[in-house]
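Hi there, hope your week has been kind to you so far. For a while now I've been wondering how a particular protein folds. I'm sending you its amino acid sequence along with the C-alpha cells. Could you read through the record and tell me how the C-alpha cells relate to the sequence? Take your time with it, there's no hurry, and the full record follows here.
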Amino acid sequence: MSTRAAPDAPVAPGTTAPAVPETTAAPRGLTVVVTGASGTLGREAAALLASCHRVRALTRDPARAAAGGLAGQVMGADFADRASLARACEGADALLVITSNPLRPDHDDNVLAAARAGGVRHVVKVSALAVTDPDADDLVTRWQRENEERVRASGMAWTLLRPRAFMSKTRDWAPSIARESVVRALHGDSRNACVDPRDVSAVAARVLTEPGHAGRAYALTGPAAVSARDQCRELAAVVGRPLRFVGMTPREAVDAWRERYPEPLVQALLEMSARQAAGGKADVAHGVAEVLGRPPAAFAAWARDHAAVFRHAA
C-alpha cells in the first residue's frame, strides 16, 4: 500500500515521515524521487506522478507537507544532509531535481551523489532558459549553468528543463492589490515569455516517466511575451475592479529586494531585470508543445485559475 505522513508527528530532516496506510492500492510503475516537493513545481509534479507511479516527495518539514496534502510518500530530507538524500534515493528509478539557493552549489552536488549511489537511472533537472543567453552572466544564471554541467557529468541519463519566469511570481503583488489596488514593478513595459508552472510540472512528469527524453534540453515558455502592465490588466479583469500600475525605479526595486534577499541575489535580480528591459526574455519557445502535444497556457488562463489569490490576500 502507498503511504502518507501522519500530520501530527513532527519529523526531523533526514528521517522518513511516519506513515499511515491510504485507502487505495499503491500504483505500479516507477519509483520517482521529487526534491523541493513542497514548492510550486514539486507539489504539482508529485500529484501528477502519484496516480501511476511511486513518489517519494522530499521536504524539510514532512509533517507540515503531509498535512497540506502533498502526494506520495512524504520524506524528510535536507539538501545539506547527504545521508537523508541517500535514504530517499536508494533503489529509485528517476529523480526530479529542483534546487533554489544559488549560494549553496553543494546542494546539487549532494543530491546527484546520493542519486548515483542509490542506483537512480534518470535525472531531470529544472534549470533556467537564461543559460542559453550568452549575454546572461548574473549569479543565478552562472549557478544554473554549473548545475547543468554537474548533471551532464553525473554518469546518469539526464534531461534538462529550461523554463522562463513562472507566471506565479505575480503572487508577490497580491498584498498590494488587496490593500491598494496597485501593482508595482520595475521596467513595466518590458516583456517576458513567462510560463505557467503547471506546464513545467506536467513536462517534468512526462519526461521522468516515458522514454525518448534522455540527453534532451527543453526550453519552456508561455505562448506570448507579456509585460507587467499586461499582467496588471489581466489581473484587474479577474478580480473585477480597476488596478493601477506603478512603475518602480531601480533604487526602489533594490530596496524592496533587500528586505527579502541577501545582497548577491539583489544584484543578480538587478542584472536580470536589465536584461529583460533590453528584450532578452521575450522570445517564445516550443518545448511545452513538443513534450505535451498541446500549446502552453496563457497568462490570462493562469490568472483566472488563481483569481482567489488576488481577491482575498491579507
About this structure: The longest strand covers residues 157-163. Residues 1-27 have pLDDT under 50 and may be disordered. Residues 263-277 form the longest helix (15 residues). DSSP finds 13 helices and 13 strands in the chain.
